[in-house]
Amino acid sequence: MTSRVSCFKMMTNGMKRRIWYGAVAFFGFFCAFPLMAMMRFQSVKEITECIQDVSEREYQLNMVKEEFQIFLGGGDLFLMFLVAAIALLGAWSGLSWLHSRRKMDMMGSLPVKREKLFFTESMVTLLLALGAYVVNILLALAVGSSKGILTGETAVAGLTGLGIHLIYFIVFYFCGALAMLLTGKILTGILGTGIFLVIVPVIYGVLQAYLQLFFKTYIVGDGTGMQRVITWLSPAGNFLSFTAVMERYWDSMAETVPFPWLTLAAAVVMGVVFGSLSFWLMKIRKAESAEKSMAFAKTEGVIKGIILYPLILGGGLFFVALSSINGQGSNNWIWFGMIFSAIVGGILIEIIYYFDRKQIFGHKVWTGISFGAAALTAVFFVLDVTGYDKWLPEEEEIAHAAMYDNDAYSWWNYPDGSHTAAGYIQNNLEQFQGKGVLELAREGVENLEKDSWDGNYTSIEVYFQLKNGKVVKRGYTVSDQLYRKIFEEKAYREVEIPIMYADDSKIQIQGIRHWNQNISLDELSNKEKRELIRNYQEDLRELSFDEIYEKNSSLIEFSDEN
After folding, report:
1. Class of residue 127 by CB neighbours under 10 A (exposed 0-12, middle 13-18, buried 19+)
2. Which candidate among 34, 347, 432, 492 keeps its CA 20 to 30 Å from the CA of 271?
3. How far apart are CA 136 and CA 418, in angstroms?
4. For 405-420, what is each residue's pLDDT tens digit?
5. What percent of the chain has pLDDT over 90?
6. Can you name the residues that pair with 466 across neighbouring β-strands?
7. β-strands 517-519, 507-514: how paired?
8. Rounded Cα–Cα distance for residues 366 and 341 (Å)
9. Sheet (strand 398-405) strand order
10. What is the three-class DSSP state of 479?
11. Measuring CA to CA, which residue among 199, 192, 162, 198 is closest to residue 177?
12. Contact 99, 184 (CB under 8 A)
C-alpha cells in the first residue's frame, strides 16, 4: 500500500532536513560569484586612476568587461569544478540512506514508492543548489554594476551560464546517484563516481600512449575527431571541454568560435541516460544491498573488468618506462607489467568488494576477459598488426601531398588565420605540388629500422590528402639531401620563411644579432628600415637552402604588426 502524500509536502520536509546542504551550496557560490567579482575585477574608477593614456585605458576597460562576461557565461574553470562538487555532494549526502540497513528499513516502512522518494530527494537537492546559484549570480551582477563593468551582453552571458551549469549539475548529480545506487557503501559509492567520471578518457589516454610508444610514424595530436567523441562520453571530460570552448566563445563573441551545441547535446543525453538508469535501479534495488560494497552481484564482474582493462595496459607501460631509467629499457617488460597489474589489481578490487582474503581471486572469468582484451590490444600495437608504420598510399590515390619540417618552427599570422607552418599546410594542402613527398615517405619507412644514422637527417611530418577526401598524417626521419629538393618548392619557402613573401609595410625589425653581438638600428629611419626589409626579402628568394641556413649567418628578428 502506498500513500498519496504530495510531493510538495515531501519536498518541504526534505528541505528542512537538508538545510545544511543549502547553506554549503550558498557559501560555495557566494565565494565563487560576488566575493570573486569583488576581488578579481577592477572597477572603472580604479582603471581610470591607474592608467592615464586614453587608448590604453579603454583597452583595459574592455578587457575587464570581457573577462567578467567569460566569468559569468560558463567559461570559468573554478566555477566548473564548484558546480560539479556541489552536485556530487548533493547526490552522496542525499542518497546516503541507501547504504544504511537501519535507514533502508525505515524508508521501506514508509507508504511511499521508492521512485517518489528518489524524485523528491533529487528535486530538493536541485532547488537548494539552484536557489543558492541564482541569489549569488544576482549579487555578482550587482557587484559588476557597482564597478561599472556590467553590460547587457554580460547579463545575457550570466543567464546562458545559469542554463549551462544547470544542465551539467543534473549530469553530475545523476552520475553520483547512479554510483550510489550500484553500491552499498559510501566509500565504494564515491570511488564508483570517480570511475564513471573519468574511465573513458583514461582508456583513451592509455591507448594514445601505446600509439606514441609503438607506432613510430604516429603524429602526436592526430585523431582529434575521435578525441572529441571520447570527450563527449565522459561527464568530466565533456564539462572541461565545454568550459574551455566557452572561454574562447565569449572572447571572440562567436566570430571565430561557434557555440559548442554538440558537446552540450552530448551532456543532455548523458543526463537523460544517467537519470533513467537511476530511477530504474531505485525500483529494482533490494533493501538488503545496504552495507555491501556492490548492490548488484551481476555488476561486480563487469565493473571489475572495465577497471582492470586500462589498469593492465597502464601497468605494462609503467614497467617499460621503469626499465628505461638506466637507458637500456626493453619493450618486453610490457608483458610482465601486464601480468603483475592483472594479479595485484584484481586482488585489490576483490578486497574492496568483500574485505575477505578468501575472495581475493574471485570473478576469475571477468579477470580473464579483461586480461585477454588487454593482451590483444598490446599485441595489436607491439606487432603493428595492421601495418600502420609501413603503410604508404599508391601514387594514383593521392590528390595532394605536403610535408612539414619539425625543426623549422615559426609563429606567424598566416593569411588563413593559422599561426604555425604545420597548421597552414594542413589547412591549404591544395596549394602544394607535393612532388617528391611520396619518395620522402618511402625513405622514411626504410629508415624505421635504423638504429644509427650516417650524415644529416631531418624529422618531418607528411600529409597525404587522398582522392576519397581522407587526410592521412605520418611522421618520418629522412636525409637532408632528399628533403632539400622539396624545400626548393616556392610554397614551402613561403610557409617556412613567411618573411620572404610578407608585406613589408606590416612587419617590423626587432633587432639584428651577428656572432652574439646586437647591431643597433637606432640610426636608421623608418623608410630605411623598410628598404632593409625589402632588400632582405629579395636576397632570400635568390639564396639556396644551404645559404639560408648557413651556420654563421646573422639572425634578424621580425614581428608581425597584425
Report:
1. middle
2. 34
3. 40
4. 766 656 677 777 777 7
5. 30
6. 398
7. antiparallel
8. 15
9. 398-405, 457-466, 471-479
10. strand
11. 192
12. yes
